[in-house]
Write the structure tokens for this entry.
Amino acid sequence: MNWLPPNGALHGIGFDHLLRWNLDTVFWLFVASQVLIVLAMLLAALRRRSAQAAAPVQPRSFLSFLFTSLLPLLVITALYIAMLITSHHLWAARREQANARHAVQVEVTGVQFAWYFRYPGDDGIYGRTTPDLVNAPAGNPLGLDPSDTHSRDDIVSPVLVLPAGRPVDLRLRSQDVIHGFFIPGMRLKQDAIPGMIGHLQFTPEVPGVYPILCSQVCGLGHARMQARLRVVTEAEFQRWLAAREPGAPSLSPAAGDRVGRATLPSPAESRP
Amino acid sequence: MNAPTLSATVTPPALPPRGFFRRRIFTTDHRVLAVLYLLLGLAAVIIGTLLSLVIRIHRVWPAVAFPLYGAMRPEDYLAVVTMHGTLMIFFVLTVVPQSAFPNLVLVEQIGADRMAFPRLNAAAFWITLASLFVLLAAFFVPQGAPISGWTSYPPLSAIAAAGPGQGAGMDCWIVAIALFCIAAILSSANFLATIFARRGQGMTFGRLPLTVWSWLTSSALTVIAFIPLFAAALMLFADRHCGASFFIPVGEVISGIPRATAGTGGSPMLWLHLFWFFGHPEVYISILPGMGIASALLANFTRRPVPGYRFMVAATLAIGFLGLGVWGHHMFVSGLNPYAGTAFGLTTIAIAVPSSAEVLTWLAMLFRGRMKLTTPMLFTLGFLSFFISGGLTGPILAQPALDAYLHNTFFVVAHFHLVMAMAGVFSLFAGIYYWYPLLTRRLMNETLGKAHFWISLIAAYGTFFPMHFAGLAGEPRHYAQLAGPVESFPSLIPVERGITFSALLLAAAQLIFLFNVFRSARHGVRAGENPWRATTHEWSPAMHPITRGEPYRYGPHSGGDEDFLPQWELAAPRAPFVPYPPGLKPE
């Protein structure tokens, strides 16, 4: 269990308990079954050595069927159902609830091969984006439409900064291909699907820095499509927001993380 | 055909065609086709394994230069992963259990004289071969093989500009998959017709060997599941070349250029549904034949009947039926409605119940009778071990709440490599060691076989078990390198290195198998008739015998002279009626 990265999310506590319980259960079932197989092999080897006749064989009685097949099957089925029910509590609490009204709103956009985070600004409304206006080299990777008043105070950032202790409502989008938005430290994963808007809610609790990965193969830069989540105190979050220059061009993503059209290999550079 | 008459014995059999090509290549003889399929599977598994070694080596020594190629670029890594997955899943884990093995023994096991549609059956092989060539051609087209993984999610797979290899390489992939679909549907339709229409006299459904029940189920699944995949491949092709947009949404932008026009938008989710409606039954198409083989071989090598034959048949059919309703568990994190996540979690747990029932039956079989640890039996036990160790993580991944962390991590890679790849391949080895005398009249070498088993078993666990830990640490699939801001990744390097050494050992152990296969064909111990003292018809001395009883009559109570009573023999003391006087038995 120490393999998991440290948890920083509210629901992560329940998640870690649930995963631990599941892994323990399954591990002991694994051990028991492998021991049975090895035991059977040892018995076979010993019997052959002693060369004595096997115990007289009875046709399979109902009792043996009951104890070797039916009862274990019922126990295992009960276990599966228990797994399903316990995990459904967590799933329902996470996914089958209405959005929290006071949640921090951030829009996440996956682009080959970077994550962009857009805050709606003071008006609380995300401005319009248009595919024709997408121009990362000019500092407008999301295609924010400057003619829309709502987009003027939008903040676009290559880093996800969130206040600790407040629910967050992420609006998940993709511009080009399917990306997988994955924050291991927040026990959080959902695909960003082009043409669809997904929502992902959680509450970051522990301040710190958490890696953000792409978990769905999205092209040659898939492994490099990484960003950071910084969980800070509420005051620090407000300071950070205030320091952002609103509007699209405020953006300066890590230069190496962007693979523009120009850097895609041309057919002439194909492999030897 | 179910009511042969004595006049059938009078008709002289057609003379076998002459000439090497007529007999060995352009033939409708199912056993020759089985050999051709096995050779095709062998070629695919050799290429697929070498690709997997390239993956493993690149992951721990990213700078290493490969001979004749040089250092790998990230897109090369993804191309290798894509081709490894496609080759292994379609051309090894589908072709061998679902095409080679039925051609090898299905006709004999049901007491038939031939396949229902021999030419269709032969055509399926040639289409499969064409499909393999088209797929491998992807390596040699400009920009190389596709990089979108064996699942080829659009829009990455729908737009050539989305990455290197997504042009001509992706077209090769689509055409290969479409051809493979046609071949799989044709051959499965033939198997279904053969099982329903050409069973020999006395072969009732209650006497079908469990392998045949498995092929019945997996063939039905193939026909049902490959049709949507074929449709999906055509739609993807139309998106790429005919201006359609089944999978390309409105507002699609690649590299800053809008790619879709308003009003024609589709959704990538459609591909996910179509693909996984194929993709999950595909898992059972690969593994159900292995489950049938496990039941048959456990009965043979413990010399006891399969307990609860009807129970096992019901479990097999239940797995096939439920297998059609679980595809959504591949899409828990794809933005499905949360209630759909709950529903697919429920169906997935439901399918674990008949699977567990079969496992418990096999475990119970280990303790009845006297187990003989021959090589085929060892591989069956290996199958059982992997099927359990890989299967047990299934109920974990079936929970949407847990999958929301584990999805697309190495935990999943460990899960399906154990339950599908290793269990599948070990059952293939069991089948090959067991049925080898049918093709060569010789047995494979036992010492080499046991060495092959033990090294493979240990190396396979060494390769795939630690992947669980990498997955728990959050390591995603398809990462060419463990670089970037994740602090825990460097600590995984020793684990990764151990996995690579194990994988190299695992691949090396297969050289023992190859040597054994080719050496035993000439120098193996002569098998004689029915070397395993088996009860099913593929070992019958007669060509298409009458079936006179249940498939697995083993043990002192079987009624035979020894501890078994073949399906083609009557239990002498208990026989109330002999349908044919000995001299008139139709041969």
In short: The mean pLDDT of chain A is 84.
